[in-house]
Specification:
The structure is a single chain. By secondary structure, the protein is α/β, with parallel strands linked by helices. It folds into 2 domains: 74 residues, Rossmann fold (3-Layer(aba) Sandwich); 58 residues. The strands form 2 sheets. A 4-stranded parallel beta sheet has the order 2-1-3-4, sandwiched between helices. Strands 5-6 form a two-stranded antiparallel sheet. Helix 4 runs antiparallel to helix 5. The longest helix is centred in the C-terminal third of the chain and has 20 residues. 22% of the residues are buried.
Amino acid sequence: MRALLPLFLDLRGSVVVISGETPAAHSFAKRCEELGATVRRGGDVEGAAFVATGSFEPADDASLVAAARSRGLIVVDLHSSKDARAFVGESAGGAEAQLAATTLGGSAELERRLVSAAASTLRPEHEGMARILRSVRGKLEERFPDEAQRANIWRQIIDSPVMVLLESGQDDEALEMAERMAWGTG
Protein backbone atom coordinates (compact mmCIF):
# COMPACT_ATOMS: atom_id res chain seq x y z
CA MET A 1 0.00 0.00 0.00
CA ARG A 2 1.28 3.45 -0.88
CA ALA A 3 1.28 6.17 1.73
CA LEU A 4 -0.13 9.19 -0.12
CA LEU A 5 -0.73 12.73 1.06
CA PRO A 6 -4.11 14.10 -0.03
CA LEU A 7 -3.48 17.62 -1.30
CA PHE A 8 -6.02 20.20 -2.39
CA LEU A 9 -4.82 23.00 -4.67
CA ASP A 10 -6.49 26.31 -5.42
CA LEU A 11 -5.52 26.70 -9.08
CA ARG A 12 -6.90 30.19 -9.63
CA GLY A 13 -4.20 32.20 -11.41
CA SER A 14 -1.77 29.27 -11.58
CA VAL A 15 -0.02 27.89 -14.64
CA VAL A 16 -0.30 24.15 -15.22
CA VAL A 17 1.80 22.45 -17.88
CA ILE A 18 0.14 19.41 -19.46
CA SER A 19 1.70 17.09 -22.02
CA GLY A 20 0.08 14.61 -24.33
CA GLU A 21 -3.03 14.21 -26.41
CA THR A 22 -4.72 11.36 -24.55
CA PRO A 23 -8.35 11.77 -23.51
CA ALA A 24 -7.12 11.98 -19.90
CA ALA A 25 -4.80 14.88 -20.80
CA HIS A 26 -7.59 16.78 -22.59
CA SER A 27 -10.05 16.15 -19.77
CA PHE A 28 -7.55 17.26 -17.14
CA ALA A 29 -6.67 20.41 -19.10
CA LYS A 30 -10.36 21.33 -19.28
CA ARG A 31 -10.80 20.67 -15.58
CA CYS A 32 -7.78 22.86 -14.69
CA GLU A 33 -9.11 25.69 -16.86
CA GLU A 34 -12.53 25.42 -15.19
CA LEU A 35 -10.76 25.78 -11.83
CA GLY A 36 -9.09 29.01 -12.97
CA ALA A 37 -5.67 27.79 -14.12
CA THR A 38 -3.90 28.78 -17.30
CA VAL A 39 -3.03 25.59 -19.13
CA ARG A 40 0.14 25.49 -21.14
CA ARG A 41 0.86 22.60 -23.47
CA GLY A 42 4.36 21.37 -24.01
CA GLY A 43 7.70 21.47 -22.32
CA ASP A 44 8.20 24.98 -20.91
CA VAL A 45 7.83 24.55 -17.15
CA GLU A 46 8.89 28.10 -16.22
CA GLY A 47 6.42 29.56 -13.73
CA ALA A 48 4.32 26.39 -13.54
CA ALA A 49 2.61 25.31 -10.33
CA PHE A 50 2.96 21.69 -11.41
CA VAL A 51 3.19 19.47 -14.48
CA ALA A 52 0.81 16.73 -15.62
CA THR A 53 1.93 14.07 -18.07
CA GLY A 54 -0.53 12.40 -20.40
CA SER A 55 1.18 11.28 -23.58
CA PHE A 56 0.15 8.01 -25.20
CA GLU A 57 3.68 6.73 -24.53
CA PRO A 58 4.97 7.66 -21.06
CA ALA A 59 8.53 7.69 -22.46
CA ASP A 60 7.49 10.71 -24.57
CA ASP A 61 7.16 12.68 -21.32
CA ALA A 62 10.65 11.87 -20.01
CA SER A 63 12.28 15.22 -20.85
CA LEU A 64 9.33 17.17 -19.43
CA VAL A 65 9.43 15.11 -16.23
CA ALA A 66 13.18 15.69 -15.91
CA ALA A 67 12.77 19.46 -16.44
CA ALA A 68 9.96 19.65 -13.89
CA ARG A 69 11.75 17.59 -11.26
CA SER A 70 14.97 19.59 -11.71
CA ARG A 71 12.94 22.65 -10.67
CA GLY A 72 11.32 20.82 -7.76
CA LEU A 73 7.87 20.73 -9.35
CA ILE A 74 5.28 18.08 -8.63
CA VAL A 75 4.65 15.84 -11.62
CA VAL A 76 1.15 14.35 -11.84
CA ASP A 77 0.90 11.15 -13.85
CA LEU A 78 -2.33 10.93 -15.85
CA HIS A 79 -1.74 7.35 -17.01
CA SER A 80 -1.16 5.41 -13.80
CA SER A 81 2.39 4.19 -14.27
CA LYS A 82 3.96 2.19 -11.48
CA ASP A 83 6.68 4.81 -10.97
CA ALA A 84 4.27 7.73 -10.54
CA ARG A 85 4.48 9.79 -7.36
CA ALA A 86 1.44 12.08 -7.75
CA PHE A 87 -2.06 11.35 -8.98
CA VAL A 88 -5.25 13.25 -9.69
CA GLY A 89 -8.54 12.22 -8.17
CA GLU A 90 -12.04 13.53 -7.88
CA SER A 91 -13.37 15.84 -5.20
CA ALA A 92 -16.73 17.09 -4.02
CA GLY A 93 -18.10 19.13 -1.20
CA GLY A 94 -18.85 22.67 -0.26
CA ALA A 95 -16.96 25.82 0.54
CA GLU A 96 -15.84 24.64 3.98
CA ALA A 97 -15.43 20.84 3.67
CA GLN A 98 -14.18 18.77 0.73
CA LEU A 99 -13.82 15.04 0.18
CA ALA A 100 -11.56 13.36 -2.36
CA ALA A 101 -10.75 9.94 -3.76
CA THR A 102 -8.21 8.61 -6.20
CA THR A 103 -7.74 5.29 -7.94
CA LEU A 104 -4.10 6.22 -8.70
CA GLY A 105 -5.01 6.86 -12.31
CA GLY A 106 -7.05 3.69 -12.68
CA SER A 107 -10.54 5.06 -13.36
CA ALA A 108 -11.98 8.56 -13.24
CA GLU A 109 -15.49 7.07 -13.25
CA LEU A 110 -14.80 5.00 -10.12
CA GLU A 111 -13.35 8.12 -8.47
CA ARG A 112 -16.55 10.06 -9.29
CA ARG A 113 -18.71 7.30 -7.84
CA LEU A 114 -16.64 7.01 -4.67
CA VAL A 115 -16.70 10.76 -4.10
CA SER A 116 -20.40 11.00 -4.88
CA ALA A 117 -21.19 8.29 -2.34
CA ALA A 118 -19.02 9.94 0.31
CA ALA A 119 -20.32 13.43 -0.46
CA SER A 120 -23.88 12.25 0.14
CA THR A 121 -22.95 12.02 3.84
CA LEU A 122 -21.86 15.68 3.99
CA ARG A 123 -24.45 17.90 5.61
CA PRO A 124 -24.57 21.66 6.11
CA GLU A 125 -23.62 21.10 9.77
CA HIS A 126 -20.27 19.66 8.64
CA GLU A 127 -19.58 22.91 6.82
CA GLY A 128 -20.46 24.82 10.00
CA MET A 129 -18.25 22.57 12.13
CA ALA A 130 -15.33 23.04 9.72
CA ARG A 131 -15.81 26.82 9.89
CA ILE A 132 -15.89 26.77 13.71
CA LEU A 133 -12.82 24.54 14.02
CA ARG A 134 -10.90 26.76 11.62
CA SER A 135 -11.84 29.81 13.69
CA VAL A 136 -10.48 28.33 16.95
CA ARG A 137 -7.42 26.62 15.48
CA GLY A 138 -4.86 29.41 15.91
CA LYS A 139 -5.70 30.14 19.53
CA LEU A 140 -5.87 26.41 20.34
CA GLU A 141 -2.42 25.82 18.83
CA GLU A 142 -1.05 28.80 20.75
CA ARG A 143 -2.56 27.68 24.06
CA PHE A 144 -1.76 23.97 23.69
CA PRO A 145 1.53 23.38 21.82
CA ASP A 146 1.38 19.65 22.56
CA GLU A 147 -0.12 17.90 19.51
CA ALA A 148 -1.60 15.00 21.49
CA GLN A 149 -3.34 17.38 23.88
CA ARG A 150 -4.76 19.37 20.95
CA ALA A 151 -5.98 16.19 19.26
CA ASN A 152 -7.84 15.29 22.43
CA ILE A 153 -9.51 18.71 22.52
CA TRP A 154 -10.45 18.44 18.80
CA ARG A 155 -12.11 15.08 19.54
CA GLN A 156 -13.98 16.54 22.51
CA ILE A 157 -15.32 19.42 20.44
CA ILE A 158 -16.32 17.19 17.52
CA ASP A 159 -18.03 14.67 19.85
CA SER A 160 -19.76 17.39 21.89
CA PRO A 161 -23.24 18.87 21.36
CA VAL A 162 -21.71 21.47 19.00
CA MET A 163 -22.96 19.47 16.00
CA VAL A 164 -26.45 19.20 17.54
CA LEU A 165 -26.52 22.96 17.99
CA LEU A 166 -25.49 23.42 14.35
CA GLU A 167 -28.17 20.96 13.20
CA SER A 168 -30.81 23.00 15.01
CA GLY A 169 -29.60 26.28 13.50
CA GLN A 170 -27.99 27.59 16.68
CA ASP A 171 -24.73 28.59 15.03
CA ASP A 172 -23.76 31.30 17.55
CA GLU A 173 -24.30 28.93 20.48
CA ALA A 174 -22.30 26.22 18.71
CA LEU A 175 -19.38 28.60 18.19
CA GLU A 176 -19.54 29.75 21.80
CA MET A 177 -19.48 26.16 23.10
CA ALA A 178 -16.56 25.22 20.86
CA GLU A 179 -14.62 28.30 21.96
CA ARG A 180 -15.21 27.52 25.65
CA MET A 181 -13.97 23.98 25.10
CA ALA A 182 -10.95 25.15 23.11
CA TRP A 183 -9.97 27.78 25.66
CA GLY A 184 -10.48 25.37 28.54
CA THR A 185 -13.27 27.42 30.12
CA GLY A 186 -16.15 25.00 29.80
